[in-house]
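Board notes (copied after class):
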Amino acid sequence: MFSGVLKKMQTEIEQEIQYYLDLPQHVLNMNQCVNKSLCLSLKGYECLNCQKTEPIFRQGFCKKCFFESPQAGDWIMRPELSKAHLDIEDRDLAYEKKVQLQPHIVYLALSSHLKVGITRKSQVPTRWIDQGAHQAMALLEVPNRYLAGVGEVALKAHFSDKTNWRKMLQFNEVPEIDWTLERNKAIDALPNELKPYIIQDEGLTTLPFPVERYPEKVKSLNLVKEEQYTGVLKGIKGQYLIFEDNTVFNVRSNEGLVVEFKLSNPRRSLQNRRPVD
């Protein structure tokens, strides 16, 4: 039995992607839980920012922190709103400079379909894994988040910027994509100010997820409502646990919940080492 505050699973790429839940007393290798019975029980809440036991509002934060913490600013989801490069504060200029004023990547990724996105360079390929992308390709490397947002806005006229999570979880056959054609299409759509940041000769990254069986009809688990669930884990994709009865549980969207895990054979599922940062 293990318990702790849910945070998104950490990952590393080996022959297949390895997933880890970092709990207070143990680091649980979730790959080793595949094909085992797993019971999840809700025990409470803990805001990831203030650590108070308040109900979680969004993104792992209580309501107060969601509207006040710089980690939940509008520029997180809409990078084109970033202003730290202008020395303008949103909620906390020091934090915003730290996050916004670093290299960012504009990319194409194949998750539920081909989409455009941006991420900090330090988060490649973590961001692609979190989105459940089977393949991805970096297009631009820019010096700050604002320019990445400009690139994303330009490409949204030609590519989606959203992932259909249900389709992504049922997406078990990678279609043939002419990546050269799609890359050229994206580059042609970029404004001239971003052309100097084009990455030359960028290769295609392929991401192998540990999934034994994909769900036929997705059923999302609401642990706050159900309070407890037991099922046989059949795989992990993105930040989702996939169970035998087609139930899926999004670890990322349930950050801040205090959850107890019970395994049918916990000793074999415990991994003592932590993933490499």
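Comment from the instructor: Residues 2-46+211-271 form one domain. Residues 145-155 form the longest helix (11 residues).
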